[in-house]
Design brief:
- The structure is a homodimer.
- Among the domains of chain A are: about 100 residues; about 230 residues, Neurolysin, domain 3 (Orthogonal Bundle).
- Chain A has 21 helices and 3 strands.
- Chain A has a 3-stranded mixed sheet.
- Chain A is mainly alpha-helical and about 500 residues long.
- In chain A, helix 5 packs antiparallel against helix 6.
- Helices cover about 65% and strands about 5% of the residues of chain A.
- The interface between A and B is medium-sized, with 34 and 34 residues.
């Protein structure tokens, strides 16, 4: 078999795996949007059958042989080429998926399935001790996984690499440390600011069906093509790119809080535009048709949500539209007051409800604890105490109970150690990319003020989306912005914004 | 391998095939309910991948070996047992699916895919000649299929057996002939009747969202459990039983015609109640967890639509409910006038719009032509002429153009020869079953008049649903009613009903 034939067969096999994976995506979307309660058992059988088939097909030794048959040949001679990226990333993924012994995969599936139930109970009872035995199991499994994957430096690298391929814990920790210092400082200033925006504006009555109309208008302006996707309602919002031509986003409407669905839609739409923007023709199933990393994915959602959606320029155009739709809620509100209301900063216990200025502190706290757990510097039993200590230090408030502390997120019970940092990386990338986009696009402010967001989307398509997984995240950042990842663009952006809003 | 082991493995394999098939069902449902236009290409790849996998798994020679390893053993010694039915029907299906050579299956897929496009064009241009070359190909393929399947008597038996296992063309034709004679007579009387109901009542304004509310109320009364299913909107209504715990129905709302969605929902709900009522526990994927035949399936939908939904007893309870919701449309209408309006008889060209009294004439016309085609008594080129001649004879009106004649239905372009008779069989079964249910259930009329439909559902569960595919349709009819299939119960029911409405 020639390397060309091997590469061709590899592509065909991965295309079929991708189609099968997209079937699973449809089932998962439908489960969360429309499925009646009674369908749960059947759906779990459907999804686990497909998941098993997907795993079996991708870890088939033949896949390993085909990758090996292309490695080192002319096909991948140019390390910067699409083909080289395909083979490099396939090797990465194949090794990740095949290095775990079957019994460990099965044990993890069993433990996390039970742990999630126990986590729900522990959270309801606000008692970390109930969850501790399960956290111990999950951490022990994560340690074994890290050993199976292998790593340079510390074990956390092996876990982080699943979600942010090629990222190094120490580098991430370095950027986070600088960010934390500045953020704690900024938040103190905000707490003591003379000026306070009036958040109650966004807590007036906003009828759900009208929020949906406004949300679709904004998503369309972002560039979401409703012929190639849909917006539906779910309890936990998400974006799912089924494949070429079909990308779904979801949201939930709170008629007494405008922010949730509005910025939720802009956020998921950011993910969707990335999915829609990665060229897939002839490569569906190959890494080049996929996103760079979870962090880069999050940079797209956060940029649209925050740098665009929470900017004053954006609302110069969209606030009058909003007023037309919600006249009784905001007819008498000024643009400045509205802008202040959507940008209110308030330290709070719950990550998913956090504002821009405190959000990353939530993430860094989790990252530090995960890293220390994996190094063995702390034990699972120390988690509640360590959490509360750090929370007081970063946020200036005491955690009142574990459900508002270390029990709030589903991730650990689901075995997702190494995932959290990608949220903060996304925020860092987004600010650094957006600063470059502003520099590159003349008149971007004015475009936003006219409601024209197409210039930004075009820039993202050209500079980020078109590359798929061609570059690793940290290299992409350098390629796009000319600089290594830094906390400065994010701090500059926030400092400028909050100085104006809070008069600090 | 013991017969017990073989049977166990067979069940496991078929269970997995059924789960995979249910994935395809979800994709098919989503395609017709929510999928955006742009998703069509991906969806067709998904569905054809799953269809291919399903075919491959079911026609695996190992399945044949396992069936053979159980046949003739103690497991199937009692011919009336569930296990014997499972093996009998699996043999039937396995032979059907494996007897066709791959090249014929592929050729049919290609021809029918093209033929459906050509049919759309020909219908739009109202020109049978454009479709003729494709009908010739489809008929030639059907003849080859019949030869592959093998048959006793005439070739049409081999095709009919796909949809109505065990049915014999000659027997069906015998019942149809008697029905046709009586129906033509009845319709003539109705045309010349002194009394005419006022159909315009159902053509007033009925807002779609209120129709949906009323429709869900009726479906709930029928016994449809909305925790185990949904009602959605599609262009072409259907029912899809995904599997245990999840059965979907769809409809379409015409705000200027009440009948379509109302009786459409009752019809699809009848299919759904059958799907929901067949015991699947421990047998999902085995024939015993499936429906008897398309004809029996249709008997369930038609019974709820016609014997229940178009009865006066039903409306004694539901008409006041309808009046509360649609006060301006029917607030001033009497029950009798409403009952007349929903039961109007009017010969018309289009089968899917036909009333109860003319519907079966449409079916018999198709059945006769298909049968003659397969026997070689007529050629595809004769179809338009033969159609129009018979139409005039049965309906008393001239076909004005081919789109109102032989080009109206999708079935032939899709290669579904042998399917049509199941529609009329469904009507015959439904009347025969319903007559027995009335005799068996004391006070059924009064139950309906109180809006209580549970007595009928219980009877259907006990007498029909619980058996799944245990009996062949014609045996089930005898088992349930004590009589062979006859046109009499249907004619008795219609004669009584229309005598009253039309004063004949």
């Amino acid at each position: 078999m020639t390397p060309q034939d091997a590469y061709k067969e590899l592509k065909e096999r991965l295309h079929e795996i991708a189609i099968l994976g997209s079937c699973e995506a449809v089932l998962g979307w439908e489960e969360r949007t429309y499925m009646p309660r009674g369908g749960a058992k059947l759906r779990s059988e459907q999804v686990s059958l497909l998941a098993g088939m997907l795993h079996e097909r991708f870890t088939d030794p033949k896949i390993g042989e085909l990758i090996a048959a292309v490695e080192g040949t002319d096909i991948v001679a140019d390390a910067d080429s699409i083909d080289a990226a395909n083979i490099r990333e396939l090797r990465h993924d194949y090794d990740k998926e095949t290095k775990l012994p079957k019994e460990l995969v099965e044990e993890k599936a069993k433990v996390t399935s039970l742990a999630q139930g126990e986590w729900v109970t522990a959270r309801a009872k606000r008692d970390f001790k109930l969850f501790l035995p399960w956290l111990e199991k999950v951490v022990a499994i994560a340690k074994r996984e890290a050993e199976c994957f292998g790593y340079e430096g510390e074990p956390y690298n092996a876990l982080l690499d699943r979600y942010e391929p090629g990222a190094k814990t120490e580098e991430v920790a370095g950027v986070f440390a600088e960010l934390r210092k500045d953020l704690v400082e900024l938040n103190k200033k905000i707490q003591n600011a003379p000026k306070k925006p009036d958040e109650s504006i966004i807590e007036r009555t906003y009828k759900a069906d009208l929020q949906a109309i406004f949300g679709e208008m904004v998503a369309s302006a972002q560039g979401f093509d409703f012929n190639q996707g849909r917006l539906d309602v779910t309890t936990h919002p998400f974006c799912s790119g089924f494949g070429p031509g079909d990308t779904r986003i979801t949201t939930r409407y709170n008629p007494h809080r405008l922010n949730d669905a509005l910025f939720g839609i802009m956020h998921e739409c950011g993910h969707a535009l990335y999915e829609m923007g990665i060229p897939k023709e002839g490569n569906f199933g190959m890494p080049i048709s996929e996103s760079t990393s979870l962090g880069i994915h999050e940079s797209q959602s956060r940029m649209w949500e925050n740098q665009v959606g929470r900017s004053k320029d954006f609302w110069v155009y969209f606030f009058p539209q909003l007023q037309r739709i919600f006249r009784s809620a905001v007819g008498d509100v000024s643009l400045d007051d509205f802008y202040g209301a959507i940008n209110c900063v308030k330290p709070s216990y719950i990550r998913v409800e956090a504002d821009e200025a405190t959000y990353n502190l939530h993430i860094m706290l989790r990252f530090e604890l995960e890293r220390a757990l994996m190094k063995g510097e702390i034990k699972p039993a120390d988690i509640a105490g360590e959490w509360n200590k750090r929370f007081k230090e970063y946020f200036g408030i005491e955690v009142d109970h574990d459900a508002n502390g270390c029990l709030q997120d589903v991730h650990w019970s689901a075995g997702l150690i190494g995932y959290f940092p990608t949220y903060a990386l996304g925020n860092l990338y987004s600010a650094q990319f957006f600063a470059k986009a502003k520099a590159d696009i003349p008149g971007l402010h004015e475009q936003f003020q006219r409601g024209d967001l197409s210039g930004l989307l075009k820039w993202l398509r050209t500079n980020i989306h078109q590359h798929g997984r061609r570059y690793r995240a940290k290299d992409l950042v350098v390629k796009v912005t000319g600089e290594k990842l830094s906390h400065k663009p994010l701090m500059d952006y926030m400092t400028k914004k909050y100085s104006e809003i809070y008069g600090i």
